[in-house]
């Protein structure tokens, strides 16, 4: 082969080989992926947001916790360990013993029984052996960070002991437990305990508060990024899909922590609720469900014994979030709604007189004849409002031409009344930013057909609606919202607990106004009577704040209770003509609303508007925790 041809063939082979190597080692080839690029993964975990009150006071945050885990029969010198931790002698043994106590109260011995002669025989029976102690191993004891550091430095001397560190939700306040709720993951021990007990079914209607409702915003979103980088750190695309990182958002509540604490002290161990809100914005200033508990009880580690005794076994049901889920008859407070609807439908005017006819319904107040609506509200005359609602429901002359059948007319009028009343946000969910809210109940004509087993019922069989009794039920949030509607002369913003999420405002739906079907002039006609109720001779005269320059408009109520003492209610707002606060109070078994619920609401209004309580009313604070003003000579 000639040399020239041999050189030409060699050149072509080298060129082909070079082109193949270049294709294999280029930036986009397989060799580049395996030899030059690296598959990286970057994960960013958000920190759960904090919770503040309306004044910037920190209520909930994440904090570091340290625990000491002691296994069963661990060999170590307890005296030396007490000395190392700076504890007094015997402190470790006492804490271990307390942690091993069984959940629930100890068994009770039977009471001695007298024989036929009335003599109680001495108990000669041998005492029964105590039930075996519930063993919980390993024992978990809470310790401080300096104590944890000391144990870690002496870990070789105590190999059986384990120090653990975790970051958990910490409640820096002792109030507003039903409002704050709990982080769902942190309350699992409590939820498991509730399901095991007989009352577990009832407490499935649990309330996670704002922690549960805003959980996704508080928790944020973990971000995972998957860059494909070369040896110089330069990114060459992604090798997997990314998930965007979002930091946990802080919540700024509308709750005033100082006012909330004052309201909780005021209600004490009573059963009932108190709701205070700003009618101009719908922001809830205080929300008390009594009796209450501390927020830490639900999530504290190793606290099942306390949770069972204080929460699940308590007959007062402190876990029941009464303002949101307890729907009850509102009593005479509901007369305001009936009066507004009757004015709107033309059944009465603000000058309509009605006799206090005791044959229609009993009236517990001795008072002059109500010559107009103002007097009727001042004295809360039951017969007046009986006749008011009767004028709405019973067939009217103007409808006889189209509804000759009186039964059909009565059905149509009741359903028309219900349509107007529902526009107050009743018989429906308000949409408050808290879980398990209940809608309450307003009866329909079809409901009475079924309940009375006839369509021929008349007003006498449903008259209890006129005084807020019978089948009608409202929640505490709805009662407060009704007062906000009257204060605003016909509109409301949905009540809410969070006024700002992060650096923004509330959720958009908490800025929208909702209007009722009643004209503003008909709400204005209610105000003189609500103010008169606070004056001398009115049902709420003891709750007047005229001495400190505050005009209050309100309405008392006494809810009949067949199983014990009546329940006391009050709802109102102040100042009467430029309202800044609405308060609704419901106290179980507290009797007349003017002697307990109304003074309680007045103290809340004065505390919020003035910042302090006048000396003449300071003694009320103690009295109202266990009784009413009548029991104290007022």
* Architecture per CATH nomenclature, i.e. the level-2 architecture of one domain: 3-Layer(aba) Sandwich
CATH class annotation of one domain: Alpha Beta
Question: Helicity level, as a percent range?
Answer: 25-40%
Largest sheet: 6 strands, mixed
Instruction: Give the beta-strand count.
Output: 18
Rg computed from alpha carbons, rounded to a whole number of angstroms: 35 Å
- The CATH topology of one domain is given as Beta-lactamase
Summarize the entry for a quick read.
It contains 23 helices and 18 strands. α10 (about 255-265) packs antiparallel against α21 (about 595-610).
Description of the structure:
The structure is a single chain. This protein has 23 helices and 18 strands. By secondary structure, it is α+β, with helices and mostly antiparallel strands. Among the domains are: 31-57 and 218-248, no CATH class; 63-100 and 135-172; 324-542, Beta-lactamase (3-Layer(aba) Sandwich). The strands form 5 sheets. Strands 3, 4, 5, 6, 10 and 14 form a 6-stranded mixed sheet that branches. Strands 12-11-18-17-16 form a 5-stranded antiparallel sheet, sandwiched between helices. A 3-stranded antiparallel sheet has the order 1-8-9. It is elongated and about 90 Å long. The relative contact order is 0.10. Mean pLDDT is 85; it is low at 12-34 and 103-107.
């Amino acid at each position: 082969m000639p040399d020239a041809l041999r050189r030409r063939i060699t050149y072509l082979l080298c060129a082909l080989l070079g082109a193949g190597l270049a294709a294999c080692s280029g930036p986009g080839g397989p060799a580049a992926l395996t030899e030059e690029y690296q598959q990286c993964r970057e994960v960013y975990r958000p920190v759960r947001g904090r919770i503040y009150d309306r004044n910037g006071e920190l209520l909930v945050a994440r904090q570091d916790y340290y625990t000491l885990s002691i296994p069963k029969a661990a060999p170590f010198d307890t005296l030396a360990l007490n000395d190392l931790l700076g504890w007094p002698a015997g402190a470790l043994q006492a804490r271990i013993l307390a942690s091993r106590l069984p959940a629930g109260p100890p068994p009770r011995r039977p009471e001695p029984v007298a024989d036929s002669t009335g003599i109680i025989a001495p108990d000669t029976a041998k005492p029964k052996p105590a039930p075996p102690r519930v063993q919980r191993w390993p024992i978990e004891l809470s310790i401080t960070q300096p104590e944890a550091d000391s144990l870690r430095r002496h870990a070789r001397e105590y190999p059986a002991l384990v120090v653990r560190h975790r970051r958990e939700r910490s409640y820096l306040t002792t109030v507003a437990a039903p409002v704050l709720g709990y982080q769902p993951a942190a309350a699992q021990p409590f939820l498991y305990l509730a399901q095991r007990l007989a009352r577990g079914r009832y407490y499935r209607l649990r309330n996670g508060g704002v922690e549960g409702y805003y959980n996704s915003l508080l928790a944020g979103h973990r971000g995972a990024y998957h860059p494909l980088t070369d040896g110089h750190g330069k990114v060459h695309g992604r090798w997997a899909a990314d998930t965007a990182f979002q930091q946990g958002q802080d919540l700024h509540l509308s709750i005033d922590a100082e006012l909330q604490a004052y309201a909780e002290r005021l209600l004490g161990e009573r059963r009932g609720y108190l709701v205070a809100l700003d009618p101009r914005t719908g922001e809830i200033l205080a929300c008390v469900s009594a009796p209450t508990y501390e927020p830490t009880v639900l999530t504290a580690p190793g606290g099942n014994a306390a949770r069972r005794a204080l929460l699940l076994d308590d007959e007062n049901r402190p876990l029941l979030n009464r303002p949101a889920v307890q729907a009850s008859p509102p009593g005479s407070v509901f007369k305001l709604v009936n009066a507004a609807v009757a004015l709107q439908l033309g059944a009465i005017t603000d000058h309509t007189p009605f006799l206090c006819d005791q044959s229609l319904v009993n009236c517990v107040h001795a008072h002059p004849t109500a010559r107009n609506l103002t007097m009727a509200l001042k004295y809360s005359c039951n017969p007046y409002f009986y006749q008011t609602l009767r004028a709405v429901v019973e067939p009217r002359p103007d409808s006889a031409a189209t509804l000759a059948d009186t039964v059909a007319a009565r059905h149509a009028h009741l359903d028309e009344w219900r349509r107007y009343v529902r526009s107050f946000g009743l018989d429906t969910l308000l949409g408050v930013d808290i879980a398990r809210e209940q809608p309450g109940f307003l009866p329909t004509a079809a409901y009475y057909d079924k309940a009375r087993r006839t369509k021929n019922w008349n007003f006498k069989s449903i008259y209890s609606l006129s005084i807020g009794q019978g089948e009608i039920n409202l929640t505490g949030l709805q009662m407060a919202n009704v007062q906000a509607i009257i204060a605003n002369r016909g509109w409301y913003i949905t009540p809410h607990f969070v006024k700002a999420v992060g650096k923004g405002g509330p959720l958009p739906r908490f800025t929208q106004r909702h209007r009722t079907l009643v004209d503003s002039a008909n709400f204005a006609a209610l105000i003189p009577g609500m103010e008169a109720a606070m004056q001398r001779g009115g049902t709420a005269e003891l709750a007047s704040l005229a001495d400190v320059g505050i005009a209050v408009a309100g309405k008392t109520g006494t809810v009949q209770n067949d199983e014990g003492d009546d329940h006391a209610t009050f709802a109102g707002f102040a100042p009467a003509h430029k309202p800044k606060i609405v308060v609704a109070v419901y106290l179980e078994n507290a009797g007349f609303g003017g002697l307990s619920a109304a003074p309680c609401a007045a103290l809340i209004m004065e505390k919020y508007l003035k910042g302090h309580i006048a000396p003449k009313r300071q003694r009320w604070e103690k009295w109202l925790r266990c009784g009413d003003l009548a029991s104290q000579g007022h």
